[in-house]
Give the backbone structure.
Amino acid sequence: MSIKKGLFGFLKELVSPTLPSAAASTTTLTLDPITHYTPTSTPTSTPSAPVSQEVIQYVCTKLEEILSISGFGGKLEFQKQENDRLFFEITNPQDVGRIIGKDGMTLEALQTLVKAFIFKKYGATAKIALDIENYRQKREDLLRAHALKSAKTVLTRSRKIDLKPMNPEERRLIHSLFQDDKRIRSYSVGSGVYRHVVLERRGPKQDPALD
Amino acid sequence: MKQLVESIVKALVDSPDQVVITQTAGESVVIIEIRVAQDDVGKVIGKEGRIANAIRTVVKAAAAKHDKKVTVEIMTQNSSNSSASTPAASF
């Protein structure tokens, strides 16, 4: 709650550039802005800021309800908005491992549900990132380290290595690692949950990457 | 578990009052059946079953905490015979 006001100006700034394009699809978001509207000292406040506040409030309430019924407990705290993405963190739960799930499966499922809730209630899509005990950063570091290690193996031993299946965001992370690499190229193969990154040595006679 | 599924499903559908969740408890396996208004079935399943799978994953995690195994099934009401329900999607 205490973060509400402080974030307000911050939100406004990030939300406003996308407003024109989003205006049509997010019209339903203004249904009940008054109850959650917190006036700011900034006079240039855009109407989208309180909307975000309402969405944030809804997400927190709903997810806390789910966690509580599940027996995990804990709170959901809004952290920041960055590039249109809303970052939340689950704090003080029981059984962090179970909430995360294998390879972040459960955390991702919760994220999917939250997005669906928002779409249902507001008729607009939202980018959401759920985190718990800094899991995202740890996972990112782990994936990065593993990819670099695999890349080394590609260069010394084999021409090609298939990495484990990852979600789009994680694959993007790997691709960005090798984007400017002269010796390794990365591309994705497979579909659905099997889609994964392949690391390959850039050969002299190879066609340019078709990512 | 039933309550959890209900809380999730009701937030996804247009007709929350038509949501019926039934729970059949075996010794260690619990079967949860979701019944929603016909127009809402798609919303609960989602594109490529994404929502349905997310519901299963979350419910399974919650059930595992209580050492239970759960199967979640989404049932479709047969329009000609509303008493006969068949699983629309089950894993």
